Amino acid sequence: MEKQTGVVKESSFFSEALNEELTVLTYLPKNYSPLYKYSLLIAQDGQDYFRLGRIARQYEALLENGDAENLIIVGIPYQNVQDRRAKYHPDGEKFSAYKRFLAHELVPFLDREFPTYQVGQGRALIGDSLAATIGFMTALDYPSIFGKIIMQSPYVDDQVLKAAEAAASADMTIYHQIGKKETEVKTTAGKVENFIEPNRLLQKAIEKKGFPYTYEEFDGDHTWTHWQPLLPKALKAMF
């Protein structure tokens, strides 16, 4: 892979677990050098994080001010809303396979391609809504591989709560954001759901585990209007 810096590079990756070709978006910081080691930040809803979240630009601003460490940002886009639900939702038919793809295929590939730390605390998963759900659930399944999680307004159901309650104590750091106005969120399944109350239950479940954990309720709803400006705070805290 050609190592272009300061730009988002698109490449293809064939997943055996999913039996499909996936697009991988990779951002190497402007000061990238193979002589240094880098943490990994892997975003589900990858295209959205680069375009709507402006995550690369916001990270570079932190880096220039000395407020962030060396970081490679990787985004995995979804094809459409059906594909997103199949991979990210706990009931999705590709949910388990997608978790295996992240842990057993994508991470080894990135560790071969780039000078990464190759430890759990050097890898983070970030996502919004269902993309946050799949990140959290993957980290619970593979705590030695993913040591950091940033969740922006995750979808939380009984399966997510039970997984959190059953989680073993691990070296895992979690940053969790949810909007106070997320009381009537229209989901891609066409339903209207209350997100804030299940997230508060998740907060209690995580706090019982004793993980390093930041929980933040913001004055807003379930949109990028709020997630984008909240990104720098989370990135600064985690990196």
What descriptive keywords fit this protein?
239 residues; alpha/beta; Rossmann fold; 8-stranded mixed β-sheet; two-stranded antiparallel ribbon; 8 helices; 10 strands; 39% helix
Helix/sheet category:
alpha/beta
- CATH fold category name: Rossmann fold
CATH superfamily: Alpha/Beta hydrolase fold, catalytic domain
**Can you give the helix content as a percent range?**
25-40%
Q: What is the mean pLDDT?
A: 96
The low-confidence runs, each spanning 5 or more residues with pLDDT under 50, are none
Q: Based on CA inertia axes, which overall geometry fits?
A: globular
Succession of helices and strands? EEEHHEHHEHEHEEEHEH
Proportion of strand residues: 15-25%
Spatial ordering of strands, largest sheet: 1-2-4-3-5-6-7-10
The description of the largest β-sheet is: 8 strands, mixed
